[in-house]
């Protein structure tokens, strides 16, 4: 296929070439993979500034997206891509194969740095969905940190740079500049820009941004950062979010409130308990989803409210395909049983299932959002999605929605969120809305700074 880049894609490509280190916070669906590959091609062939390139990506993206994009576009078809995945024997063989680009899933980063050791020879590293490196205590971050001084070019790509707030930025920016902009240590970053929030003695549970600190952080990183929103560059159909409010029966509501208060209940002779606040939140979400796990890992039905609401959505959709995001295994079991007449298909990123979905051959597709939240192009298969149980994770929510709401989608995406009234579902939706506001504030400041600089 002939590549005719949008103006913003040329801008991104030039930014990667002109900056040895770049942090691209680009909305899902703007074609950042082909843009980055085009920059890599020019760096290898025209500028002679890249020789051995490593791409680190989520598993499904590493398996499908980077090789698929090279095969798709005429100007990239000659690039040799080696996928470093599978068992250790296959990974070693893939590393030894002659290639221009080596793609590895992020869970194998620690293995790679250990295997190569002092023989690390990747001069250019691209991290796709870099927010997965936001935790400085994670093994993948620590492993990459060891070899960072040997990397000449670093490109970070993400649509969700700070899903939980500004604290998520430090580790990602350290991989860009080894601490030049936001401090060499997380402690120094925290001390300069945050103040303690909730605490218990010396234990601080969360950190609050100091007044004006958000603007200062944006100023510190804006020279290596480009932020682009899809709505500013593409005519992408709307994402229409609709909350389906569901009333539990009086008996179900009482059972919910009793468990929320007592953190203990018995169903069918089996005890169900929640000994911590986190466990309670999880159990309450299980309840609204329709079943709860007991202490022996069996599950027991609490209600059918969301199944009935989903039936109404599917019936209204007619012959239109529907994508459903579920959270718990018991939800999958009940969905498969309830809708077996529709021959529902469970999807975790398999290429054959992806092809069948995009060809319109699947009426009901069931996905755990964590398994499909990155990089998969599913917009040709439908425009209706349902969150059976909401997620606390803003990044997961935005990325999963972007499987349908992206460039190439021709119809408004209808996003239905099943919410049991008077339950934890309402708090989850409120929490991701708050996180979205904080992240968007950061990106808006960066975009404004770039606009002001370009007008000088």
Features:
456 residues, alpha/beta, Rossmann fold, 2 domains, 7-stranded parallel β-sheet, 6-stranded parallel β-sheet, globular
Would you mind describing this structure in some detail?
By secondary structure, the chain is of the alpha/beta class. The chain folds into 2 domains: about 240 residues, 3-Layer(aba) Sandwich (Rossmann fold); about 190 residues, P-loop containing nucleotide triphosphate hydrolases (Rossmann fold). Helices cover about 45% and strands about 20% of the residues. The protein has 18 helices and 21 strands. Strands 3-4-2-5-6-1-11 form a 7-stranded parallel sheet, sandwiched between helices. It has a 6-stranded parallel sheet with strand order 12-21-20-17-19-18, sandwiched between helices. Helix 17 links the parallel strand 20 and strand 21. It starts with 6 loop residues before the first helix and ends with a helix.
Q: What is the C-alpha radius of gyration, as a whole number of Å?
A: 23 Å
Beta-strand fraction estimate: 15-25%
Number of helices: 18
Q: How far is it from the N-terminal to the C-terminal residue, by CA? A: 39 Å
Largest sheet: 7 strands, parallel
Helix content: 40-55%
Task: Provide a compact summary of the structure.
With 456 residues, this protein is an alpha/beta fold. It is 43% helix and 20% strand.
Helices and strands, with pairings:
Blueprint: H1 7-18, E1 21-26, H2 32-45, E2 53-57, H3 59-72, E3 81-84, H4 88-96, E4 101-105, H5 109-116, E5 124-128, H6 139-147, E6 153-158, H7 169-177, H8 186-193, E7 194-196, E8 199-200, E9 203-204, E10 207-209, H9 213-221, E11 225-228, H10 230-233, E12 239-246, H11 250-262, E13 264-267, E14 270-273, H12 277-289, E15 291-293, E16 299-301, H13 305-317, E17 322-325, H14 329-338, E18 345-347, H15 351-358, E19 364-367, H16 369-372, E20 384-387, H17 394-401, E21 413-420, H18 424-454
Parallel strand pairs: 1-6, 1-11, 2-4, 2-5, 3-4, 5-6, 12-21, 17-19, 17-20, 18-19, 20-21
Antiparallel strand pairs: 7-10, 8-9, 13-14, 15-16
Helix pairs in contact: 1-2, 5-6, 9-18
